[in-house]
Each structure stands twice: as C-alpha cells, then as structure tokens.
Inverse folding.
C-alpha cells in the first residue's frame, strides 16, 4: 500500500526550504561540535542502533549456543561454558547500558521534545553534546572490556563473584559508570527544558503526552542513576582493596550489593518503558484521529509510575536472603506499581474505541505494543506474588517477562517512533509495504523466541544455564529459530529505513496529520526549528478542528 | 535577573543575615560537639541527636546561604526530593537488615537437650560467639 | 552561540528590528532572567544527584555500622575531634565567604568579589592541610582501607569491622576532598574572572551556581563530621 499524500499537511503546502539542519553546515567537524539538539539526536540514533546491533549479535550467539544441549553446530562443539557466560553477560550489559537506557530519550526525545514545546533547543545544548561524548566514552570502555577478557558475571554483577572473578570487570564497571553520567545529564537537560522553555500559551497540561513521559523518565534518571554510580565505585574498590562491604568472606553482605544495585536498576526499567509508553501516547491520537481519552490520567500516571518505581526494588531479591518483612512490604508495593500502567492501557484502548483508525506502520507497532506489553506487564505481577516468585524466579519465565516488556514494549515502541518521526527527521518516506512486512516478521519472531520461554520457565528451566535437560531441547530450538525470524525482521526494517534516505520520496511537513508542534516545521526542519516562535492556540490532540485528508 | 526578589533586600541587610547565619551555624557546631560528650542513654540516642543537629545546620545552610528561602519553589522541591529518595533507600535497607531472622517457622522444634558432654562428637554445637545478626 | 555584542547572524532568530541581546544570552532563551532561572534549576538537579551519590555512601556506612557496632565505636576513637571540628568551622566560614562573594558580584563590586572568592579558596586550602595532617596520622598508625589495614591493639582481634570502617572513612573523606579540590579550581577561575570585571548585576550566574556547589560540599561535611567523629 503506497503512500500518496496530497494536501495532508495541517499547515498547508509550503515550499520546502533549501537549507535545513542536515545541510546547513557541512563536514564532520560541524557534526562533532554541534549543539543542535536535532543533530545530537541523529548521532545518538546511529550510536544506539549500533549498540543494538552488537547486543543483538550476542543474543543470537546465546540462542545459537542453546540450540542443543551438546552445543554443537553441524556436529562440532563450537562454544564453551565460559564463552557462553560472556555472551549472555555482554548481551545484557550492552543492551541495558548502551542501548535501551539512552534509546528513546537521547535519540527521539532529543530531536522531537524541544520542537513539541515550540523551543529552539534544549535548556543546555553544550551539556547535551557532552552527554553524547560521555556515551561514546562509555562505549569505548565497554568494547575494551570485551576485547580484554570480557565479563562473565551476568549484567547484574552480583557479588561476591563479580568482586573476585577474572576478566575485565573493572573496565565494564567504569563503562557503566560513565554511561550513567551520560544518562543523568540527558535527564537534567529535559527537566530544565520542560520547566522553562515551553512556548507561550503552553501550560503544563497543554503539553504533548510524549513530553510528560520524557519528563517523568528524567526524574528517574536524576534520582536513581547516582546510586548506580556509587554502587559501581564500591564494586570496583571492593575488587581492588577488598574493603569487605559486599563479600561475606571478608565481612561484607552480598545482599547489600543487591540493595544498592536494584535501587537503581528497578527504576531503570521504568527509564526504559516510560518513554516507550510516551511514544504510544503520541501515535494513538494521530492514527485514530481522536483526542486522547484521559489526558490528565496519562500525565499523572507517568509521573506516579516514576515515583512509585523507587519503592519496589526488593522484588528482585525475594529469594536472595532479604528478610520476610521486607519481602512482604515489597510484594505489596509492587502490586501498587502495576496500577498506573493499567491506567494507561485503558486510556489508550478507550482512545482507539470509535476512532478513525488507519493502519500505517507506526500504528501496527502500536498494536504490537499493546498486545506484547500487556503480556509482559501481567507476567510481572506473577513475580510480585511471593509464593509464585519462589518457583519462577531465575527461570526462563523471568527472562520471557522482561523481554516482553523491554523488547515487546520499549523496542517495539522505539521502532514505531522511528517510523513515525522518520519523515520529520530525514525528509524522506520509507516504503510502507516493506516496513509492514518488517513489523510482521518482528512480531512473529519475537513471540516465537520469547513466548516459548514462558513455557520453558514454567517447566523449571533455569536462566543463564549452559547445560540443560534433554526435555527442554525442542523448546530451546524453537526459541532459537524464532530469534532468526526476529533478526530477519529487524534487518529488513533497518535496510528499508536506510534505503529511504536515498530512494524514498520526499516527505511533506505533516504526513500523518499530527497536531503537535513538531509537525508545523518543515521536513526536515531548519536549524532553528521554526521560522517564528510558535504560539499554542489549541488543546493537545485537538482533532475536532482539523480536517486531514489522507489517500 | 533584575527582578530577583533578593534585590528587594538592601545589601547591608543581606550581609547581616549571612553573618547571623554563620554565627548560628558555629553555635550549632559547638552544641553538637558538646552533646557528643554527654551520654544520652543508648548509643542510638546520640546518633539521633547528632543527626538532628546536623539536619538543622543543613536546613539553615540551604535556606540562607543557598537562598532557598527567597528562591522559586521549584529549586526547593528538587532539593527536598533528593533527600526524600535517599531516605527511602535508607529506610527500606534498614527494614531489611533489621528484621532478618525475626520470623521463626511455626513448626520449629526446640533444640534437643544436651545429653553428651560438650566437645563429644554428635553433641549440638553452641552458637558461635561472633554470629552476626 | 555568539558572544559578540553586535548581532551579525541572519534573521532566523527573529531579531529583526529588536535590540541586540546581552552578550551572555544564549539564542534559545528569550530573556536573561529565563536563562538564569533555567541554569539554577540545572545546578539544583545536579546537586540532587550529588546528594544521592554521597547518600549512597552514607547508607553503606550506616549499614556497616549496624553490622559491626563495637568495632565501629572503637574505630571512631581513632579520629581526633579537634581537627574534625576545626575543619567544620573552616568550611562554614568558607560558605560564608562564598555567599558574600555572590552578594558582591550582584552589587557590582568586582574587587570585593575576587577577594571573597580567594578567601573561600584559602579556607578550602586550610581544610585540605588539616585533612593531610589527619591522613598522615592514619597512615602511620596503619589505619588503612581494606587489605592494607595493619593496626595493632584492636579489641576484637581478627574482625573485619575495623578495616571496613577505615575503608569508608577514606572513601567518603576522599570523595569529599576531591570535591573540595575541584571546588578550589573552579573558585580560583571565578576569582580571576571577577577581577577582570566579568560579573555584574546583569550577569553573575557562574558565581551563584558554583556557590551552590560549594555549599553542597559544606553540607556533606556537616553530616560527615558527626557521623565519623562524634559517635561514641
């Protein structure tokens, strides 16, 4: 189904400016010293996509190693247990620290958020650039770690193994430390931007919901990440000086490490999902041509999710030696934290009800998200139930759960957002037919890979195990085949998007008929985003006064 | 910046406020050092008193030296939120560490009476003196 | 960002016939006041992260104290109150000189601003000297972190608690000391700029913001001092 849009632009047709943010200044130095949030967003997009590729390769290696319990390919053993431990650790570490935490905020939000507010840039453009270079520094350290012995502790670095094992734990720890500061400064920038750089006429409840989501995420980034920083420092010092804080053999408490670690890492998973939800909140009104149902509820739920995420971290430690009292408290609070997510689901679905829905690729990703995140979120509740957690923890059930929320949730939403804002960022339209096939392959492959893991986990297959009982082999093999379908879908999607840069038709200002301010700029935008300071004159997602034709 | 509320105060008055603040802080320091020499019952009481005085000093520094008293509320909210979430971290950690080993299984049998002399093989071992709670 | 006083860039800013803005105003802000308020929010957010960073260490210390109450109390005795109290006083005075520097900058008194800033640096230097004296004493006594701990005469022989106490002592005072050093650098840079007359009532943001940072350094010590030196 090809796109042939005519007068779809809300602002009416106008001549495409010859100079835009992409060609205003030329040469690599202009990119390396840019303070333009759009250029920084593009650089981040390239960076996190590369990280996703690296993390994805490790994932494929993990699945390949588990194809059969003999670890053979064409009859030959090709992987050792030590190598396998490194594969899953690096998969996790790269995906969490290099890809998913920065993904939406640093790339898409950097590009779009100032424009949605009608601003010329973020509050601190130079700090924005510094965030990007911190990411690069973290990436260099992470890659150095991979080359110089890698890490086999699991991405969670549990002590005392991580304080005593060989390998380049120090380098990876330092990488995560630096990446943490990259994240902090991104969040700092967005909070200040949202507070002070809104367009005239735009109050807090006139902002797009994407902005609310990124704002809530930024709060988490500011409050949680510093504790990760100090945790990693303590880990490093314990490795070097044996200070005896986390290793019980020298007087420490391993559960203390887990408290420190999860105080960041649980809110971190909300850094991952809330921006994804924020993207969904943008795409649904646009592709349903309807005002968001329960705007305030979604706004409040974003912030309450951010705040509640800080009081549930103990649910990662139910069987680690945490006291029963703490277990019970954390279990109850975890049930509470599911409520704001539920509120969003209901509001999204209510918006879709009796909407004028069109099924372009971004909307297909929305539908995938709703299905996959519902499963992921629901299975999370299984884990907050203490009695069930005892059986399911550290099995493939939890692996499936978090992949459903992180990949089925965040990555799907991220892909949808990339397709949604692609015309704005690049000025090109991708081929709709191929992007739909890509989405379908991703959806099928994803469910094959991880749906089967729910079954395995329920039957008792533990996570991170290199060896497994023969009875699990068919499911493991099915999951591995699914990873190939998933990989193919992602590959196809990437090729399609990249091809559009040279071969795609030129995009109009507003191909989807969106009502938020970024669609009033040209595609791609000029360096200063808008010719004149936009003034907000209508409510968010006001579809009553817009007529959008769509072929 | 020219509309800053602090400009309403003339510089002399402001300087006097700062001097008063410094004197208050020095007095509080003297109090906290003095209080450390007095034994207030349990060790925990000393800690509570020391931390209370420290918090008063911190609030004084924040309100006057860091201008939070006359500043826009958003800055104070940010400051309070930081401390609040630190408090959450501390609170849950102490709840966990403080309640380990509290709950006993309901079907716990009392240890069997010691029949053999201590030291003989098979006699139940006495709990280690250094057992960490 | 242009810092020239003449508006030479093309119209995309929409200046048109308006007056050229203050040379310090960045192009994405509409007024200096907006820029100042935004910068302040940014600094307070950064300070919140510092609270949580140091707070994490305080939490670790508190939990370890809970695990080794007797060892920690005994280790406390090794810290001398006089240098600790002196350092507290020195930092409080430095906070005073800092806020006076901000006042001077805001009231167009360049020389006074510089003087107060240098005084603050001086106080910080005294702090570091006292710290150096304390550290030397610790090294001589063998009161070192982790595996380097080799003090004799501890009551509970063989316990890890003492080494843990001093690990935290050096980590926290070390991290704090690092912040003092960084502060000294920043304040010196400010003092040089102040002497050159770069600050006025129209623009004193750097002095204000680095002042806030300096007060945080003081705040950390306000908590560090009683917890390490005064608990018995």
């Amino acid at each position: 189904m090809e796109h042939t849009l005519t007068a779809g632009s809300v602002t009416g047709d106008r001549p495409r400016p010859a100079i835009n943010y992409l060609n205003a200044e030329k040469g690599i130095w202009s990119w390396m010293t840019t303070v333009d949030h759009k250029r920084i967003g593009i650089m981040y997009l390239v960076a996190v996509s590369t990280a996703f590729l690296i993390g994805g390769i490790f994932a494929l290696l993990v699945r390949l190693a588990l194809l059969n319990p003999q670890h053979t390919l064409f009859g030959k053993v090709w992987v050792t247990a030590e190598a396998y431990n490194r594969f899953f650790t690096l998969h996790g570490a790269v995906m969490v620290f290099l890809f998913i935490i920065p993904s939406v905020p640093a790339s898409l939000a950097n590009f779009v958020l100032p424009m949605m507010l009608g601003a010329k840039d973020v509050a601190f453009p130079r700090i924005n650039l510094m965030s990007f270079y911190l990411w690069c520094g973290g990436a260099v350290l992470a890659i150095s770690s991979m080359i110089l012995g890698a890490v086999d502790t699991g991405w969670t670095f549990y002590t005392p193994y991580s304080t005593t094992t060989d390998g380049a734990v120090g380098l990876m720890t330092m990488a995560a430390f630096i990446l943490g500061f990259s994240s902090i400064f991104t969040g700092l920038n967005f909070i200040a931007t949202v507070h002070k750089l809104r367009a005239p006429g735009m109050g807090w409840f006139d902002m797009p919901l994407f902005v609310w989501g990124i704002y809530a995420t930024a709060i988490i980034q500011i409050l949680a990440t510093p504790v990760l920083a100090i945790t990693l420092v303590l880990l490093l010092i314990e490795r070097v000086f044996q200070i005896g804080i986390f290793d019980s053999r020298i007087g420490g408490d391993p559960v203390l490490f887990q408290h420190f670690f999860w105080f960041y890492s649980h809110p971190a998973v909300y850094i991952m999902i809330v921006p994804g939800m924020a993207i969904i909140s943008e795409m649904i009104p646009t592709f349903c041509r309807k005002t968001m149902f329960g705007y305030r509820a979604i706004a409040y739920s974003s912030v309450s999710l951010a705040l509640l995420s800080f009081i549930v971290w103990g649910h990662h430690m139910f069987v680690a030696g945490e006291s029963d009292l703490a277990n019970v408290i954390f279990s109850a609070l975890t049930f509470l934290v599911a409520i704001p997510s539920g509120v969003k689901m209901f509001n999204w679905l209510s918006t879709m009800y009796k909407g004028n829905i069109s099924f372009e690729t971004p909307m297909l990703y929305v539908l995938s998200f709703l299905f996959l995140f519902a499963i992921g979120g629901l299975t999370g509740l299984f884990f907050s139930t203490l009695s069930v957690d005892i059986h399911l923890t550290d099995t493939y059930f939890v692996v499936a759960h978090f992949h459903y929320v992180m990949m089925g949730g965040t990555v799907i939403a991220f892909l949808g957002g990339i397709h949604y804002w692609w015309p704005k960022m690049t000025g090109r339209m991708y081929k709709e037919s191929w992007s739909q096939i890509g989405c379908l392959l991703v959806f099928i492959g994803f469910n094959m890979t991880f749906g089967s893991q729910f079954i395995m986990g329920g039957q008792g297959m533990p996570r991170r195990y290199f060896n497994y009982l023969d009875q699990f082999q068919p499911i493991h093999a099915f999951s591995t085949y699914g990873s190939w379908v998933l990989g193919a879908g992602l590959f196809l999607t990437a090729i399609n998007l990249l091809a559009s840069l040279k071969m795609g038709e030129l995009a109009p200002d507003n191909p989807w008929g969106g009502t938020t301010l970024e669609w009033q700029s040209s595609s791609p935008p000029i360096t200063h985003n808008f010719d004149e300071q936009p003034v907000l004159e209508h409510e968010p997602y006001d579809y009553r006064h817009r007529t959008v034709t769509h072929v | 910046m020219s509309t800053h509320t602090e400009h309403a105060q003339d510089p002399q008055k402001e300087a006097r406020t700062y001097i008063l603040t410094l004197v208050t802080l020095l007095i509080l320091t003297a109090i906290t050092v003095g209080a450390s020499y007095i034994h207030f019952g349990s060790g925990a009481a000393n800690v509570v008193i020391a931390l209370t005085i420290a918090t008063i000093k911190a609030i004084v520094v924040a309100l006057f030296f860091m201008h939070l008293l006359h500043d826009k509320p958003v800055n104070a909210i940010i400051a309070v939120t930081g401390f609040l979430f630190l408090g959450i971290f501390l609170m849950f950690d102490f709840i966990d560490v403080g309640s380990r080993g509290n709950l006993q299984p309901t079907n716990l049998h009392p240890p069997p009476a010691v029949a053999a002399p201590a030291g003989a093989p098979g006699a139940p071992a006495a709990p280690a003196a250094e057992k960490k709670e | 960002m242009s810092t020239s006083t003449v508006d030479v860039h093309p119209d995309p800013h929409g200046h048109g016939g308006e007056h050229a803005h203050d040379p310090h105003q960045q192009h994405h802000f509409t007024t200096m006041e907006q820029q100042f308020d935004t910068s302040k929010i940014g600094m307070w957010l950064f300070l919140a992260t510092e609270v949580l960073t140091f707070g994490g260490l305080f939490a670790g210390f508190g939990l370890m104290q809970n695990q080794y109450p007797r060892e920690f109390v005994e280790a406390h005795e090794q810290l001398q109150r006089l240098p600790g109290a002196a350092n507290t006083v020195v930092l409080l005075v430095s906070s005073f000189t800092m806020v006076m520097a901000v006042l001077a900058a805001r009231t167009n008194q360049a020389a006074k601003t510089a003087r107060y800033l240098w005084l603050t640096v001086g106080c910080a230097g005294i702090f570091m000297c006292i710290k150096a004296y304390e550290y030397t004493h610790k090294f001589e006594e063998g009161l070192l972190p982790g595996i380097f701990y080799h003090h004799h005469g501890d009551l509970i022989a063989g316990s890890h608690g003492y080494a843990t106490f001093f690990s935290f002592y050096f980590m926290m005072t070390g991290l704090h000391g690092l912040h003092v050093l960084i502060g000294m650098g920043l304040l010196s840079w400010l003092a040089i700029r102040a002497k050159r007359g770069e600050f006025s009532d129209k623009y004193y943001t750097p002095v204000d913001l680095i002042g806030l940072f300096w007060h945080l350094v003081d705040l950390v010590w306000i908590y560090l001092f009683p917890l390490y030196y005064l608990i018995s």
